[in-house]
User: What shape does this take?
Amino acid sequence: MAASHHLILLVLCLTAAAASAHNITAILDGRSEYTLYNSYLSETKVCDEINSRSSVTVLVLTNGAMSSLVANLSLADIKNALRLLTLLDYFDEKKLHSIGSSSQLTTSLYQTTGQAAGDMGHVNITDLRGGKVAFASAAPGAKFQSTYTKRVADFPSNLSVLEVSDPITFPGLFGSPPASSANLTDLLEKAGCKQFARLIVSSGVVKTYQAAMDKALTLFAPNDDAFKAKDLPDLSKLTSADLVALLQYHALPQYAPKASLKVASGRIPTLASTGAGKYDLTVSSSGDEVSLDTGVDKSRVASTVLDAPPTVILTVDSVLLPHVIFGGAPSPAPAPGPAADVPASAPAPEGSAPAPAPKAAGKKKKKNKAKSPSHSPPAPPADSPDLTPADAPADDAADKVETKKNGAAAAAVSFAASVASVALVVAFLL
Assistant: This one.
């Protein structure tokens, strides 16, 4: 009898785990009326933010409504619009109509970014006369231009996908400047990364970063405390080539905000990566924490300085020390393995708006002083650092991360974790 009870408990827990894992792009895939919307979910990586939520309502737009929205908007503006259409609560058709004559204020994904002034990231839901349900920004005087059209899909208590007639907007939502127009060193200095800013300027690598900001760039900037660590090797003893390689190692040739890194697994190519897998990073996550493993040390992704697709700047709490330079004698090139599952940016859909196209942790190894430049890859001298990501030494397999369905990794990890937890409980009860 006890064994049967345990089996029932196991089945119920596994069912709950499976239900809580969702993949918004897979759900919309094959629904031709939402092709444009789904494409921008992938391009802006908002899909990863949605898939990481346990209870969420996604308000989707048809191709016609989406085309009107994205016209003349930057990719950063489109991302904010998609976030405002993502509600952090579960609303199915029945719940919407149960609001009655009153209104309900709910939080959107945009509110969580810190970019919203006051309550501008909240959404007002109102049941209008005639049974229509409308959505509007919480901004004073906002008009209810967006109305509920139909149910698309739902997974009770976890994910509801509803079609709406129009986007939700408010004055000031749009107008984000392109990432390439930002003063990179100024951003880094204000974020407490002054030493890193000085290094990229003195080495000339700042030009490499700036050239990539219009294409795709993820920058990991160590904060000033990271350069004060007692066990940090003396970077002043590095050759110019090694210093350039070290700084290129702090950047990825793709757009990978924190939400996307959380569902990544395995090695990620950097701007310094070579075809043999040298200068790759390994990413791992636990809860909301994301860590980067170099093979010499580990660093935590601390905060987001700039998220303006296709560029994201993140701070890290340690200098990333590549094994090729700081790991002692050169190790054999790693056998080819799976690249990290960071979803690659999808190309802008044909005929759409002119938006820019878009692990295991081991014991800490002893850190050594910088070695001979013979360990470093070919890199430009400090006085001519015009290397762009396209020129960085990498073959096709290591230069671009293979894409799976967005959020599939998150679902698999969530499910596996749930199964493991349930198995432990059952073992204990037995």
Observations:
- Residues 1-20, 329-337, 344-430 have pLDDT under 50 and may be disordered.
